[in-house]
Model the fold of this input.
Amino acid sequence: IPTDYTVVTPNARIVDIRLLTCPSITTCYAPGQSIGDSPIFVTQDRGITWKSEVPPAGTSFGNTMACASVLTCYVAGSDRHGHSLVLVTRDGGLQWAQHHLPLGSGYGITAIACSGVESCVALAVNYGAGNGAGTTVAITSANGGRTWALRTLPPGTNELYSLACPASAECYAVGHDTDHSIYWATVLGTKNGGATWRVLWSRAGVPPPLAKGSLQAVTCTTTGACFAVGERGNGSGVIVAINSRTATWAIPPLPAGTGRLAAVACPSAPECLAAGQGVGSLGALVVAGSVSPS
Done:
């Protein structure tokens, strides 16, 4: 883990940066908030300098983003009426096209993932379903976000938070099912670009360490290895290594004091980094290690 850092402020008027997505070692996008507007900051020189790009009039950037290349990125957003949409750039952030989504009121985009510059999948959750649970739907686009199709998820799917697509048409989504505030970790998969989904783990088949737990984030490599992080039913952190080709999995031991994990990245799998909370007075933490599916 590097110990030398340089502090760079993208904009003197910046208030907050909510997300950072880097499709290459030189190019990164960071939706944020400045005084009076909500731009997206773009660097193409490893973060030395940043440009501030604004969304189309009457729209705003959200907190969910995916880049299919250094020039093509998709950002969840909304219009002035609060309706969900996706903003797409194909020129590195200079221009953004807005595309409305086939979603009813109350839905918000929780994840976007792309397996190519034209093919993307998104998840949207409506938290007004009652019974302490949200309702998740999937939407897919095969034409660069210009149009989106609504896809039905398996019955009982409540809240999905993260999405990863290791190969063309293949994606995995993680989250939890909810029943009166009791959680069960959930993993769904698709092999046809999100048109149909199957349950890999559910309330009935979740591994014992994840019973009454939740998965918050997932990342996959092109070799078919996926790594999901979250928390067990007792609040301690958990990492799950999944071989998407064989449907086998491994749950490695974590350092003492590891609490809920909310983010994961595997720059050189099976080497991974996971970030989240420590138990008690440990505060925020990052755990690093190597783990492979069974």
Q: What stands out?
A: The mean pLDDT is 83. The radius of gyration is 19 Å.
